[in-house]
Amino acid sequence: MQPQDSSVQYSRWNNSSQDEVSVAPVSSTEEASGYARISRKLCSGKLGISLKVLGGVTLFWAVFILGYLTGYYVHKCK
Questions:
Q1: What are the beta bridge partners of residue 9?
Q2: How far apart are CA 31 and CA 20, in angstroms?
Q3: What is the pLDDT along the chain (78 residues), one digit of tens a residue?
Q4: Which of 23, 28, 33, 50 is most exposed, with the fewest beta carbons within 10 Å of its own?
Q5: Could you give the CA distance from residue 45 to residue 25 in angstroms, rounded to a whole number?
Q6: How far is CA 50 from CA 26, 38, 41, 42, in A?
Q7: What does the chain look like in DSSP terms, one character per residue?
Protein backbone atom coordinates (compact mmCIF):
# COMPACT_ATOMS: atom_id res chain seq x y z
CA MET A 1 0.00 0.00 0.00
CA GLN A 2 1.28 3.47 -0.89
CA PRO A 3 1.23 6.37 1.54
CA GLN A 4 -1.13 9.19 0.60
CA ASP A 5 1.61 11.83 0.30
CA SER A 6 3.39 9.92 -2.48
CA SER A 7 3.56 11.80 -5.77
CA VAL A 8 4.23 8.79 -8.05
CA GLN A 9 1.45 6.35 -8.85
CA TYR A 10 1.82 3.11 -10.76
CA SER A 11 -1.05 1.05 -12.04
CA ARG A 12 -0.97 -2.12 -14.12
CA TRP A 13 -3.94 -3.43 -16.04
CA ASN A 14 -4.41 -7.19 -16.36
CA ASN A 15 -6.15 -7.06 -19.75
CA SER A 16 -3.62 -4.79 -21.43
CA SER A 17 0.08 -5.03 -22.07
CA GLN A 18 0.54 -1.35 -21.22
CA ASP A 19 1.70 -0.07 -17.86
CA GLU A 20 0.59 3.33 -16.73
CA VAL A 21 2.81 5.55 -14.61
CA SER A 22 1.68 9.00 -13.58
CA VAL A 23 3.77 11.54 -11.72
CA ALA A 24 2.00 14.34 -9.94
CA PRO A 25 3.80 17.66 -9.51
CA VAL A 26 5.17 18.48 -6.09
CA SER A 27 2.73 20.62 -4.16
CA SER A 28 3.41 24.34 -4.22
CA THR A 29 3.45 24.51 -0.43
CA GLU A 30 6.71 22.56 -0.28
CA GLU A 31 9.80 24.69 -0.60
CA ALA A 32 12.74 23.61 -2.68
CA SER A 33 15.68 22.38 -0.67
CA GLY A 34 18.61 24.71 -0.03
CA TYR A 35 20.84 22.68 -2.33
CA ALA A 36 18.34 22.90 -5.19
CA ARG A 37 18.02 26.68 -4.78
CA ILE A 38 21.78 27.19 -4.72
CA SER A 39 22.27 24.83 -7.66
CA ARG A 40 19.59 26.60 -9.69
CA LYS A 41 21.15 30.00 -8.98
CA LEU A 42 24.77 28.97 -9.68
CA CYS A 43 24.10 26.85 -12.77
CA SER A 44 21.74 29.04 -14.78
CA GLY A 45 21.44 32.60 -15.95
CA LYS A 46 24.26 35.10 -16.29
CA LEU A 47 25.90 34.05 -13.02
CA GLY A 48 25.96 30.41 -14.11
CA ILE A 49 27.51 31.25 -17.48
CA SER A 50 30.11 33.47 -15.80
CA LEU A 51 31.05 30.71 -13.35
CA LYS A 52 31.37 28.16 -16.16
CA VAL A 53 33.62 30.49 -18.19
CA LEU A 54 35.72 31.31 -15.14
CA GLY A 55 36.02 27.61 -14.29
CA GLY A 56 37.05 26.79 -17.86
CA VAL A 57 39.73 29.49 -17.93
CA THR A 58 41.04 28.39 -14.52
CA LEU A 59 41.16 24.75 -15.64
CA PHE A 60 43.00 25.75 -18.84
CA TRP A 61 45.70 27.64 -16.94
CA ALA A 62 46.08 24.90 -14.33
CA VAL A 63 46.65 22.28 -17.04
CA PHE A 64 48.96 24.65 -18.95
CA ILE A 65 51.15 25.37 -15.89
CA LEU A 66 51.21 21.69 -14.89
CA GLY A 67 52.26 20.72 -18.41
CA TYR A 68 54.90 23.44 -18.53
CA LEU A 69 56.44 22.37 -15.22
CA THR A 70 56.31 18.69 -16.16
CA GLY A 71 57.94 19.40 -19.52
CA TYR A 72 60.58 21.58 -17.89
CA TYR A 73 61.67 18.88 -15.45
CA VAL A 74 61.43 16.04 -17.98
CA HIS A 75 63.54 17.83 -20.62
CA LYS A 76 65.91 19.61 -18.24
CA CYS A 77 69.52 19.36 -19.34
CA LYS A 78 71.87 17.76 -16.82
A1: 22
A2: 28
A3: 545 555 665 556 555 566 666 666 655 445 568 888 888 888 888 899 999 999 999 999 999 999 999 999 888 877
A4: 28
A5: 24
A6: 31, 15, 12, 9
A7: ---TT--EEEEE-SSSS-EEEEEPPPPTTSPPPHHHHHHHHHHSHHHHHHHHHHHHHHHHHHHHHHHHHHHHHHS---
